[in-house]
Amino acid sequence: MTRLLVVEDEPGIALALEDDLTLEGYRVEVIQDGLAAVKRAREEPFDAILLDVMLPGKDGFEVCRELRRSGVRTPILMLTARAQEAEKVLGLEAGADDYVTKPFGVRELRARIAALLRRSQAGSAPPSVRIGDAEVDFARGEIRRGKETAPLTPLEFRLLQASSAPGDASSPASN
Question: I need a labelling partner for 58 at 20 to 30 A (CA). Which of 49, 105, 129, 159 fits?
Answer without folding.
Answer: 105
